[in-house]
């Protein structure tokens, strides 16, 4: 069947050009004007929509204004001070904020975390990134509670009313695969430029995972606990807030961590379009080719990311200790009180001694020149080698593959994907894969889509080629895995944008640079899932293999890898998702794929164009995701549970 | 035995899991064949059950895993909506009660203990025990004082501030028991409360449970899959198989007159002398005076030492002290040796 299909496909590709030109490019007349429709709706919303008493425009302005208040307060407290409703807010100052963060670390997990978190903030202050970092942090401080709260409420609603839950799942899927830029376009149009709309975009971006995690966490609350709640006569409200949510607390805190990290990721991106902050610093430094300054701002992002991640993870792991005493408010909340004391003292001291408020200019370190020199040194001394390697890969691999993929007829590709869907998961999957492919083709963005597939495909391939051997090597060595795991975990907390910088510095702009950045970003899941899969293989089966006299090579290839296949496939899936999300960000370095479409739309504030291109990326992600999931569950079913070792070792 | 009014009656209760259960059951009628139900893609978890639990008795429901015990007990408390039948509590059909009525009933009249304890991990022992009262809106000092009493009742005084994860399995279940008693319920459900515990601890908890019940005198529905446990604790036992009750009666009934081979299989390993009561294996008195005597409720095993002196028979006396029959040596030897 596959052979026949491939033959038909090849025939269509080779000779179909003249006979069926429309199979290669969807004729203009057949393309539904999706972009115009979307823009039309947005236009109508901003210009005409009316709710009787007020217009839609009034509504969005109102929302902006409401969100702006806590933002101004947070920003004012963190740095600079502000006047809210005529009340002046004095800044806590860098020393106060750093001490507060350290105190928080201490409360959550003890001295090491206090040192890490405090150190990270001190680092930011020393290197003169304080103001930008606080701009970023202020957005996060406002966006995270809103995102967590909104996600929690949606998740609870989805859990309580199963119909509603089932209805929102496809939207959650879609929203998590739509590239980050695509969110920004309509938000900018509706809410205007500025930090507030960046925050709203962040909120919308970070809410779906929280919603999903909430639904999952509530579902996993043991049945007995639910029965308990009903048996003691809880009302529905008591059931939700007194029984379900507290029981699911640990899983929910994982969601909070996710929201924080996603918000950081988004805030960095959003700040590039005028909101200011660390992301903006990095981008403008790169544009000036001032690599030193770019790297310094980049390090500040890394410091912020690590501090926020470790703090929120510690909060998630923290378990309530036995109440020590009930002696009044001092005994019950020792840390709250010390935090307040620090806050007040630091603010007052800041008013008296300026150095406490703003980190003194003279105490600043700058490694900017040093880094600039390092990059310059590499670029001067190894320019030829780097250039040669880059061109070799470009000419021999990237460009041929790109040409080949772009030349493929959409009809044939849709047919092959339909067939794959059919074989892996039956008619529904076939319909989904084929239908979405046709939809992508009908937007007229086929060439961009294929460029996306090509870049993503090659990057994923390379990431898997690097990740698999590393995974195999690491999986058997516990100590090594422990340290590799720390590195991977840290790498995954970094905003995608950070990965782009070194690549740009060494390779300038273009597909090659994009590819390197994507590979770097997508490597972590490739390694992680390989290791998890390999380590999950039943040791008894490996012993059986040894007993049968398998060589170590046979044990790896015929037992371990075969049995770890489902996990490795899921790793491949994650790698693809990571690659796609990074791909869109590489639009900044001038790729010509769907990401670029979105980015252009963003700069032109063309919502229709941006959303259509964004949805195309989402569709590609969904097709890959569903097909691989089906393949993974098929391979799991094939391996069975107990007889796997027998026929594998045989 | 106990002849008071039944407190909880369950009549023709069915629970079928699956689509269109009620309709299918109506179509097939109350004598529905399990095979026909399975063919209709339904899981017959509870089939046509009639039971009556009397005031102050320990009613044990025994059956192997998957026989429908949990489903039945959840139907009795209406945690699961039965497909058909009625459940009468003090003569009132629970299945027609409104949500608000059920909440009130569960708050004040019912308590439940769970197999895996179902303690809330974020609360201390005291807070867990006080939780049912908190839900009712009782003020803090009052509910904590009451909870503390419950904690000491189950022998955990001093551990009030501990979190569930800091306790052993046996201690956790003690907390579960204290919590279920906090609101002073009339009707106490226990779903395999000791199954998750080690055998030694299980024994200890059974003793504790017997001690508690001698003080509290609750009406109890106790679920177990362990026949020895059932025999130790029960006033009456119902044996379940595939969702239906095969036989219900006193432990003695089941051991001496098993209704089916299935019941016989369970009772085979039980020392019958320990279960059989003098009153039910005695023969008519032959009038010989001057014999040692035992009460009707004494088990044969307990009466056996009296025969050491070479007596041929022992008089059996009723509750009023009059001789109602005699226990013959041959009967005792037979039961003791027969196992
Ligand atoms: N929600 C449900 N949906 C479908 N089938 C169910 C459901 N709950 C229970 N069952 C089925 O009903 C039957 C009885 O289950 P139940 O839990 O009452 O058994 P049990 O006697 O309590 O067993 P155990 O000793 O394992 O707790 C089983 O076959 C079970 O698979
Ligand atoms: Mg059960």
UniProtKB/TrEMBL annotation, chain A:
It is a multi-pass membrane protein. Coiled coil: none annotated. It is found in: Cell membrane. It comes from the Bacteria. The keyword Membrane applies. Keywords: Cell membrane, Membrane, Transmembrane, Transmembrane helix, Transport. The chain crosses the membrane at residues 94-127, 134-158, 178-206, 259-279, 291-308, 335-356, 429-446, 452-474, 512-531, 568-590, 610-628. Residues 129-312, 449-628 form the ABC transmembrane type-1 domain. GO terms for cellular component: ATP-binding cassette (ABC) transporter complex. It comes from Silicimonas algicola. Belongs to the binding-protein-dependent transport system permease family. GO terms for biological process: choline transport; glycine betaine transport. CDD domains: TM_PBP2 (cd06261). The keyword Transport applies. Its main location: membrane. GO terms for molecular function: amine transmembrane transporter activity; carnitine transmembrane transporter activity. This is Glycine betaine/proline transport system permease protein. Pfam families: BPD_transp_1 (PF00528).
Automatic annotation (TrEMBL), chain B:
Residues 25-267 form the ABC transporter domain. Its main location: membrane. It is found in: Cell inner membrane. It comes from the Bacteria. It is a peripheral membrane protein. GO terms for biological process: amino acid transport; glycine betaine transport; response to osmotic stress. Keywords: ATP-binding, Cell inner membrane, Cell membrane, Membrane, Nucleotide-binding, Transport. Pfam families: ABC_tran. It catalyses: a quaternary ammonium(out) + ATP + H2O = a quaternary ammonium(in) + ADP + phosphate + H(+). Belongs to the ABC transporter superfamily. The complex is probably composed of two ATP-binding proteins (TmoW), two transmembrane proteins (TmoV) and a solute-binding protein (TmoX). The complex is probably composed of two ATP-binding proteins, two transmembrane proteins and a solute-binding protein. This is Quaternary amine transport ATP-binding protein.
């Amino acid at each position: 069947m596959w052979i026949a299909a491939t033959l038909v496909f090849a025939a269509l590709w080779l000779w179909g050009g003249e006979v069926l030109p429309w199979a290669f490019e969807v004729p203009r007349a057949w393309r539904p004007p999706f972009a115009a429709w979307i823009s039309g709706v947005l236009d109508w919303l901003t210009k005409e929509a009316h709710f009787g008493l007020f217009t839609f425009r009034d509504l969005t302005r109102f929302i902006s204004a409401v969100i702006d208040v806590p933002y101004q307060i947070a920003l004012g407290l963190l740095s600079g001070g502000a006047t809210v409703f005529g009340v002046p807010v004095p800044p806590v100052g860098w020393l106060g904020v750093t001490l507060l963060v350290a105190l928080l670390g201490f409360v959550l997990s003890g001295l090491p975390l206090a040192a890490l978190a405090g150190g990270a903030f001190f680092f930011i202050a020393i290197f003169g990134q304080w103001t930008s970092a606080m701009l970023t942090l202020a957005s996060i401080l406002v966006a995270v509670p809103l995102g967590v709260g909104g996600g929690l409420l949606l998740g609870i609603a989805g859990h309580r009313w199963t119909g509603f839950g089932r209805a929102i799942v496809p939207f959650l899927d879609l929203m998590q695969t739509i590239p980050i830029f695509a969110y920004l376009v309509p938000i900018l149009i509706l809410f205007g430029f500025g930090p507030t709309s960046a925050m709203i975009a962040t909120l919308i971006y970070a809410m779906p995972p929280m919603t999903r995690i909430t639904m999952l966490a509530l579902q996993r609350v043991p049945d007995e606990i639910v029965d308990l709640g009903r048996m003691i006569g809880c009302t529905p409200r008591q059931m939700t807030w007194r029984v379900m949510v507290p029981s699911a607390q640990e899983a929910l805190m994982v969601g909070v961590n996710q929201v924080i990290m996603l918000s950081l990721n988004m805030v960095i991106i959003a700040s590039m379009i005028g909101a200011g902050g660390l992301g903006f610093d990095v981008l403008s430094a790169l544009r000036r080719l001032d690599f030193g300054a770019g790297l310094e701002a980049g390090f500040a992002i890394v410091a912020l990311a690590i501090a926020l991640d470790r703090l929120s993870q510690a909060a998630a792991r923290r378990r309530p200790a036995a109440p020590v005493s009930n002696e009044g408010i001092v005994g019950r909340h020792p840390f709250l009180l010390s935090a307040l004391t620090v806050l007040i003292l630091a603010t007052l001291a800041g008013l008296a001694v300026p150095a406490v408020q703003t980190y003194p200019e003279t105490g600043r370190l700058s490694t900017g020149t040093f880094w600039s020199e390092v990059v310059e040194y590499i670029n001067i001394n190894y320019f030829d080698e780097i250039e040669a390697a880059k061109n070799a890969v470009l000419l021999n691999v990237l460009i041929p593959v790109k040409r080949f993929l772009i030349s493929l007829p959409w009809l044939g590709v849709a047919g092959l994907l339909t067939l794959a869907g059919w074989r892996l998961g039956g008619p529904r999957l076939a319909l989904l894969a084929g239908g979405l492919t046709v939809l992508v083709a009908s937007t007229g963005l086929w060439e961009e889509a294929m460029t996306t597939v090509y870049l993503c495909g090659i990057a994923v391939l390379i990431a898997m080629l690097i990740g698999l051997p590393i995974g195999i090597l690491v999986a058997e060595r516990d100590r090594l895995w422990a340290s590799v795991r720390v590195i991977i975990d840290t790498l995954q907390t970094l905003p995608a944008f950070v990965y782009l910088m070194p690549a740009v510095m060494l390779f300038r702009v273009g597909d090659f640079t994009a590819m390197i950045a994507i590979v770097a970003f997508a490597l972590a899941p490739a390694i992680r899932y390989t290791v998890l899969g390999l380590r999950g293989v039943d040791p008894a089966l490996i012993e059986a293999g040894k007993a049968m006299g398998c060589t170590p090579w046979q044990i790896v290839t015929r037992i371990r890898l075969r049995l770890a296949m489902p996990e490795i496939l899921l790793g491949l899936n994650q790698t693809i998702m990571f690659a796609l999300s990074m791909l869109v960000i590489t639009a900044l370095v001038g790729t010509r794929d769907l990401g670029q479409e979105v980015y252009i739309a963003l700069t032109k504030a063309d919502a229709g164009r941006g959303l259509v291109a964004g949805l195309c990326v989402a569709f590609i992600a969904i097709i890959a995701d569903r097909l691989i999931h089906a393949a993974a569950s098929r391979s799991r079913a094939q391996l069975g549970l107990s007889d796997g070792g027998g026929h594998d070792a045989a | 035995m106990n002849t008071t009014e039944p407190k909880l009656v369950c009549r023709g209760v069915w629970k079928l899991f699956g689509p269109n259960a009620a309709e299918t059951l109506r179509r097939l009628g109350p004598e529905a064949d399990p095979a026909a139900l399975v063919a209709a893609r339904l899981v017959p978890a509870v089939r046509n059950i009639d039971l009556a639990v009397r005031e102050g008795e320990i009613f044990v429901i025994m059956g192997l895993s998957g026989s429908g015990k949990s489903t039945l007990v959840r139907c009795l408390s209406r945690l699961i909506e039965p497909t058909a039948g009625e459940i009468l509590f003090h003569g009132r059909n629970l299945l027609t009660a409104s949500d608000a009525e059920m909440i009130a009933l569960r708050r004040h009249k019912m308590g439940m203990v769970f197999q895996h304890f179902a303690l809330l991990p974020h609360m201390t022992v005291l807070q867990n025990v006080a939780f049912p009262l908190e839900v009712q809106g009782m003020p803090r000092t009052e509910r904590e004082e009451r909870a503390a009493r419950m904690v000491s009742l189950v022998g955990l005084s001093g551990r009030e501030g501990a979190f569930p994860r800091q306790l052993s399995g046996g201690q956790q279940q003690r907390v579960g028991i204290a919590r279920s008693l906090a609101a002073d319920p009339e009707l106490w459900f226990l779903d395999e409360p000791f199954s998750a515990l080690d055998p030694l601890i299980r024994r200890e908890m059974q003793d504790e449970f017997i001690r508690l019940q001698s003080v509290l005198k609750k009406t109890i529905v106790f679920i177990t899959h362990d026949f020895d446990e059932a025999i130790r604790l029960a006033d009456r036992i119902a044996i379940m198989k595939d969702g239906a009750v095969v036989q219900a009666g006193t432990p003695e009934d089941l051991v001496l007159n098993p209704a089916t081979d299935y019941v016989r299989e369970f009772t085979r390993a039980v020392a019958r002398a320990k279960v059989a009561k003098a009153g039910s294996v005695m023969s008519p008195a032959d009038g010989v005076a001057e014999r040692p005597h035992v009460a009707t409720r004494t088990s044969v095993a307990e009466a056996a030492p009296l025969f050491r002196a070479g007596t041929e028979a022992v008089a059996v006396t009723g509750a009023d002290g009059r001789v109602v029959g005699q226990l013959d040596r041959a009967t005792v030897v037979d039961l003791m040796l027969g196992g």
